[in-house]
Amino acid sequence: MIRPLAPLIAMASLAACAAPESVARADMAPSGPPPMAEPARDGKCYAHETIPAIYEHVMGEVQVVQAEIAPDGTVLRPPIYRRAPVPRIVRPRSEMTFEAPCPEQVTQDFVASLQRALGARGYFSGNVTGWLDAPTTAAIRRYQRDRGLESAQLSLETARALGLIAVELPPS
Q: Which of 95, 101, 165 is nearest to 132 (CA)?
């Protein structure tokens, strides 16, 4: 007996036509705070960044069959190798530490000022929310990368350069 497929096709097409839920980025709460600087004994705060290793694949030889060796040490059958891509470390994993604003300084007003300062320099184009959200940390990363610091955590030097924290002048 052949069953008509029309009801199944109709249900599948209705399910496919259901409107997806839309979520506005401005309405979303931040998914979680980015790592914050940690206070040290010297009264300053420091951020820690892990720089991942970079690998590349180069052609090398991979042993596919082990050598057969007699009990007296003579080689009965040499090992067999084949050429294949093997990973090579270009840059090893490392840790970076730099001075950063202390958590009590990073208020919602501070972050809003940071967003405006980055926006004035063409690095941030989102809404000024006062939250360290993904667009803000991406803008921080781009701004700092252009100045030689590969990190999305705000450095004290960057905060000073943006005019967010007073620059300490040497005594005159």
A: 101
Q: Where in the chain is the domain with CATH 1.10.101?
A: 29-52+96-161
Residue type, 118: L
Closest alpha carbon to 100 in 115, 109, 110, 112: 110
Q: Return the SS3 of 6.
A: helix
pLDDT tens, N- to C-terminus, the chain (172 residues): 455 544 444 444 444 444 433 333 333 333 444 566 767 677 789 999 888 999 999 999 999 999 999 999 999 999 999 999 999 999 999 999 999 999 899 999 999 999 999 999 999 998 999 999 999 999 999 999 999 998 999 999 999 999 998 877 788 7
Angle at CA 120, nearest 5°, toward 114 and 121? 95
Q: Checking phi first, is residue 122 left (phi over 0); if not, alpha (psi -120 to 50) or beta? A: left
Fold of the CATH domain 29-52+96-161? Muramoyl-pentapeptide Carboxypeptidase; domain 1 (1.10.101)
Nearest to 117 by CA among 165, 147, 162, 167: 162
